[in-house]
Amino acid sequence: MSHIAFIGLGNMGGPMALNLLKAGHVLSVFDLSSSALTVLAEAGAGVASSARDAVADAAIVVSMLPASRHVEQLYLGEDGIIQGMRPGALILECSTIAAASARKVALAAAAADIGMLDAPVSGGTGGAIAGTLTFMVGGPSQVLDSAMPVLLAMGKNVFHAGEHGAGQLAKICNNMLLGILMAGTSEALALGMANGLDPKVLSDIMSKSSGRNWTLELYNPVPGVMDNVPASRGYRGGFGVDLMLKDLGLAAEAAAGSASPIPLGDVARALYAEHSQSGSGQLDFSSIIERFRAVGAGEAQ
Ligand code: NAD
Q1: What tens digit of pLDDT does each residue of 39-54 get?
Q2: Residue 300: per-residue pLDDT
Q3: 270-294: per-residue pLDDT in tens?
Q4: Closest atom of ligand 1 relative to the 247 alpha carbon
Q5: DSSP for residue 172
Q6: Neighbouring-strand partners of residue 159
Q7: For the chain, how far is it from start to end, CA to CA, in angstroms?
Q8: Is residue 152 located within the same domain as residue 214?
Q9: Is the pTM higher than 0.85?
Q10: Active site residue 104
Q11: Ligand 1 atom nearest to 65, measured from its CA
């Protein structure tokens, strides 16, 4: 079993760290939120007073932070933790960030004789809790082989996408599709409801028809249709609108850099931006359905 430092214990990182503890690893954890630290301390993790303190004796460092700037600050900033890590240690960077940021961290790590994999995840908070996440990994395959036992303590599927940054590119393509699917599913459900259909009945029909998709079957955006999804708890927890907006921005950057047209990605980005600006940035991204229900909502309920 390894000594693992875990930085970033939010909606995803918290349950992922708990699964590492359950698998018998020794954990040092750090987060800016004291309530997040308390949960891990009660489960048996050692709470560090800083990120630098957390990584000092760790063989593996897992990070799960909001965005590129947090990750670059953590590893490469003034008090960056790479300088405080043991040579021969390994970084598993699981946040969704720009491929260029992942490559920067990998280069700086290599210069300090530290291995690095970009290993963003899919599967949502449900997958993080159940330990069934999908990892999309960028970096050398022999490094990935050594990381497998730790990744499989948090997930079920591990894909090697290519060299450093490739895991992030795969994740960005996936999340652009997810953002489009959630918006499209919301539009279809809102249309049905505005015309008198019961959203549960409509969801059941479309789940067995050609419109079926992950958001409809596992993450329904209409409150009350499904238990244990953010829509049924006031869109709290889950995957924030601002995080989806960040990912659609990363997709737009990747598209600009490769001259790839992404008209649907652009429309989805504009929708989530409008939703965030209306004050919903911290709500789960399935609350995008409110954009489609604003006009005449409740008319034919
Ligand atoms: P979150 O906002 O719930 O958690 C982020 C955590 O990082 C918070 O607890 C925050 O206090 C902590 N943090 C921020 N800066 C820090 C720092 N400098 N040092 C220590 N801790 C710091 O976000 P999340 O939903 O857990 O998402 C984390 C990452 O995973 C994001 O990149 C997101 O895009 C990605 N992701 C999220 C989901 C999801 O369903 N929520 C799914 C797949 C991927």
Answers
A1: 999 999 999 999 999 9
A2: 39
A3: 999 999 999 999 999 999 999 998 5
A4: 34
A5: H
A6: 136
A7: 55
A8: no
A9: yes
A10: no
A11: 7
